[in-house]
Amino acid sequence: MMKQIIRFLLALPCLCTFLTFQSCEIVTEGGYRTEAEATYELCRYYWYADYRDYNGNGIRQAIYFWADGSGRRDVYYNQPGMPQVERTEFYWYWGSRTYRAVIMEFATGETTYWDDIFISGNILTCFTGEKYLTFYGG
Q1: What is the average per-residue pLDDT within 30-55?
Q2: N or C: which terminus of the chain has fewer CB atoms within 10 Å of its end residue's CB?
Q3: Three-state helix/strand/coil letters over the chain
Q4: Are strands 47-52 and 111-120 parallel, antiparallel or unpaired?
Q5: Is 92 exposed, middle or buried, given 0-12, 13-18 or 19+ CB atoms closer than 10 A?
Q6: What distance in Å separates the CA atoms of residue 67 and residue 4, rounded to the nearest whole number?
Q7: How far from the centroid of its chain's Cα atoms is residue 136's Cα?
Q8: pLDDT-based confidence at residue 1 (cuts at 50, 70, 90)
Q9: How many C-beta neighbours within 10 Å does residue 62 have?
Q10: In CATH, what is the architecture of 35-137?
């Protein structure tokens, strides 16, 4: 009987450590706990990404999310002969109960789906169905 008690006491710290790390893993993969928390994180910055087109011209895409479910995408072109800014309004909503997916319905009829959203500080990453994107908060 005494051996069993000693074994249990020796195994208890290992068990506690295992359970602690398991619970952390579940929380980080589960997304936000409430819609309000997720919406705050999504809306607290405008999100931008810089890239170049096939000709090497610079383009900046900025996406604004507002807590009322509206938003705007601004695309800035640094190319001769093209408009400087192209603005498109959209409505957005959460596409999952874990608040890790957003659906954007644009005024042009286009629908965009971002999945696997992860926000850490002022960095947002997501999967568009074709590739992973990284946006920075401004």
Answers
A1: 91
A2: N
A3: CHHHHHHHHHHHHHHHHHHHHHHHHHHHHHCCCCHHHHHHHHHCCCEEEEEECCCCCEEEEEEEECCCCEEEEEEEECCCCCCCEEEEEEEEEECCCCCCCEEEEECCCCEEEEEEEEEECCEEEEECCCCEEEEEEC
A4: unpaired
A5: buried
A6: 57
A7: 11
A8: low
A9: 18
A10: Beta Barrel (2.40)
Q: Is the distance from CB of 59 to CB of 51 less than 8 angstroms?
A: yes
- Its sign, for the CA torsion 57, 45, 114, 31, is positive
Structure tokens of 62? 């900025």
- 107 contacts 89 by C-beta, under 8 angstroms: yes
With contact defined as beta carbons under 8 Å apart, do 72 and 88 qualify? Answer: yes
User: In this predicted model, what pLDDT tens digit does every residue of 23-38 receive, in sequence order?
Assistant: 333 234 556 889 999 9
Q: Which of 120, 56, 63, 114 is nearest to 88 (CA)?
A: 63
